Amino acid sequence: MDTMSKEMLEAFRILEEEKHINKEDIIDAVTESLKSAYKRRYGQSESCVIEFNEKKADFTVYTVREVVDEVFDSRLEISLKDALAISSAYELGDKIRFEESVTEFGRVAAQSAKQTIMEKMRRQMREVTFNEYKQHEGEIMTGTVERFDQRFIYVNLGSLEAQLSHQDQIPGESFKSHDMIDVYVYKVENNPKGVNVFVSRSHPEFIKRIMEREIPEVFDGTVEIMSVSREAGDRTKVAVRSHNSNVDAIGTIVGRGGSNIKKVISNFHPKRVDAKTGLEIPVEENIDVIQWVEDPAEFIYNAIAPAEVDMVLFDDEDTKRATVVVPDSKLSLAIGRRGQNVRLAAHLTGYRIDIKSASEYEKMEAQELQTEEVAQESEVISDKAE
């Protein structure tokens, strides 16, 4: 058995183990390699025919020559006289196959075939891995913390390591090697170097998927989570609606005595260092559950909770901008610590929200009124002048 066959058998052995690989692809790859080796040697490959013997995992290379009266190219043609010397049955126009020695093409063809095969196999394996993880995009997967570097925590999901970046981690959460963790798969990419799977624990959708897993009414669609805005490890707002008039959406999500919310929160483990003792103490992510409504003004009103709202006004020119007027005493509550409440409400509703206190708003109104009056007066004056 020549080198080529040995390498073929080795390649097919790998194939048998990796059921995903398409054998035809491998055969095509080798055929291509042998054809190009033939062409390099003889300057053309029209006369070349390659056959594959399934049992021996062996390739045979033939040169096909046509029987002619007068030979112009001995690669492509054979004289009738020479053909008859092989068999008296041959006549003009017949095509005769002559076996070439595969070793004639030397190790170059074998190597190039092997490289092509390996490349095809890698590409197919990538494709298989990509498809396997692509179907889990938008889902929670459980993995094992493998290793860390400056940029990522690498989480083993089975056949590859997913990447958990800093912004996808919950501030205050820390892990050790071999920890089992749940992650949300938000992006799967197929690159020439391999398949990249990006996962997150801070993603708003992670909360949504956990609620589906922990709360039966969310899983079966009775209560729908319409939107989530999240500052992971600290605070989240979830807008919900019920598709059954007998089921209260907020009550269902919160659960009896807060049991459902507790189940959701127990999936996160942020800690902070206590300034007095220097010890790490657990922190709970606060989840505000908000009633989703179709009317944008009412939805924004609900989203600003726990602060009260006097009114919601929309911008005529910018349809996605809203001004929310709140009592003076509730201004800081409406804005929230470092602007968090209004920021989460804006993400939740999809509106850019400006918060104004009632007295600020009155001042603004008075100024606008004054400006209008001045404009009207100047119009009257210019009319008289004419």
Brief descriptors of the model:
386 residues, alpha+beta, N Utilization Substance Protein A, Chain:P, domain 4, OB fold (Dihydrolipoamide Acetyltransferase, E2P), GMP Synthetase, Chain A, domain 3, 4 domains, five-stranded mixed β-barrel, four-stranded mixed beta sheet, 28% strand, elongated, DNA-binding transcription factor activity, NusA_N_sf, transcription antitermination, Transcription termination/antitermination protein NusA, KH_sf_prok-type
The overall strand count is: 17
The name of the CATH topology of the largest domain is N Utilization Substance Protein A, Chain:P, domain 4
User: What CATH architecture of the largest domain would you give?
Assistant: 2-Layer Sandwich
How is the largest sheet built, in terms of strand order? 5-6-7-9-8
Q: What do we call the CATH homologous superfamily of the largest domain?
A: NusA, N-terminal domain
Mean pLDDT: 86
Any low-confidence stretches, pLDDT <50, length ≥5? none
- Helix/strand/pairing class, anyone? alpha+beta
Given the structure, what is the number of helices? Answer: 12
Subunit structure: Monomer. Binds directly to the core enzyme of the DNA-dependent RNA polymerase and to nascent RNA.
Keywords: Cytoplasm, Elongation factor, Protein biosynthesis, RNA-binding, Transcription, Transcription antitermination, Transcription regulation, Transcription termination
Family: Belongs to the NusA family.
Region (Disordered): 367-386
If you had to describe this structure to a student in words, what would you say it looks like?
This protein is of the alpha+beta class. The protein folds into 4 domains: 3-129, NusA, N-terminal domain (N Utilization Substance Protein A, Chain:P, domain 4, 2-Layer Sandwich), CATH 3.30.1480; 139-200, Nucleic acid-binding proteins (OB fold (Dihydrolipoamide Acetyltransferase, E2P)); 208-292, GMP Synthetase, Chain A, domain 3; 296-386, K homology (KH) domain (GMP Synthetase, Chain A, domain 3, 2-Layer Sandwich), CATH 3.30.300.20. Helices cover 39% and strands 28% of the residues. Helix 1 packs parallel to helix 4, helix 2 runs antiparallel to helix 4 and helix 9 (296-303) packs antiparallel against helix 11 (340-349). The longest helix is centred in the N-terminal third of the chain and has 29 residues, at 106-134. The radius of gyration is 36 Å and the shape is elongated. The termini are far apart. The relative contact order is 0.07. Belongs to the NusA family. It is found in: Cytoplasm.
